[in-house]
Amino acid sequence: MSRPVGRVLTLLELLQSGGTRTVAELAERLGVDGRTVRRYVDQLIDLDVPVESVRGRYGGYRLAPGTALPPLMFGDDEALAVLLGLIAGRRAGLTPGGTAGETAAAKIRRVLPARIASRLDTVLDSLAFTDEPGALPVPDSEVLLTLADAVRHQRPVALRYADRKGLRGDRTLYPYGIVAHAGRWYVTGKDPEIDEERTFRLDRVTSARPLAGASFEVPDGFDPADRVLTGFATAAYRYEVTVRIQGTVEQVRARLPASVAGLEPCVPEEDGRGGGEAWVRAEVRAERLDWLPPVLASLDRPFVIERPEELRTAVVEFAERLASFARSA
Q1: Which phi-psi region, left, alpha or beta, contains residue 94 (left: φ > 0; alpha: ψ -120 to 50)?
Q2: DSSP-derived secondary structure for 255-268
Q3: If phi over 0 gives left and psi between -120 and 50 gives alpha, with beta otherwise, what is residue 172?
Q4: pTM, rounded to two decimals
Q5: 325 by DSSP, 3-state: which?
Q6: Is the peptide bond before 224 cis (omega within 30 degrees of 0)?
Q7: Which helix or strand (DSSP H or E) is residue 201 part of?
């Protein structure tokens, strides 16, 4: 690489670090005079890199938003951070756009110096993941960007959505927020047609179109993440479970997170089980009950099953199995 070309790339790297750089500062860093700096800036502009001049006492040059992403200059640690972020995001289902994450990582990997590529291989060889890549569907990039813009500007959107049975329908939504949870993306907001809050999985949204000429207000104190987690705990399932547990909300929440159970303090029953301690009523909705006895046992706290009777039977059978295992030689 010739020295002028190398200096032009160094100039680009300096401008990408942010802020406005004076001509004197750039000249000193590049080892050239101010006239040469201006010539290098012109070369970047010829390459469609959006460099703009800032006038005034503290003027100089800075990068401006452009129509295309200019070449990026990464240091060793920056390149590793970007690549690991792309790999981890794809594994966790947080990289939208199908193969976009893979192609972006491949482009960076292709131009890495050998010493950096070797460091990355060392990290990846020693890193284990608990799930398979691409195990969860990812949302369409255009859908995600459209909804994010609608959230920011509080504009309604028209959604085309497929439910869990594959039935397609059209909905209007006032999107309050976008939430990433357990490898999936969700949008939550208000459906004005039924005047209720709704949550949709983004990978099931096939199209999103902003509706012009309308706007909405987000309720004060609305927390999108809390709304999504609460929705999981209150969704319709086969069993509706109610259990009183001795302990505080914080103590019980360690085993029954917000996505699983709704918790609220309750007054101990006058049956001698109160003991003067705090009690919590847990409301759980579940398709199966087999996972609940081990969770209740892990709490290691007194509890009273209010409903359903099937859970009481499941807990007794679970306790008897544990006892038989303990007694066996």
Answers
A1: alpha
A2: TS-TTTEEEEEEPP
A3: beta
A4: 0.54
A5: helix
A6: no
A7: strand 196-201
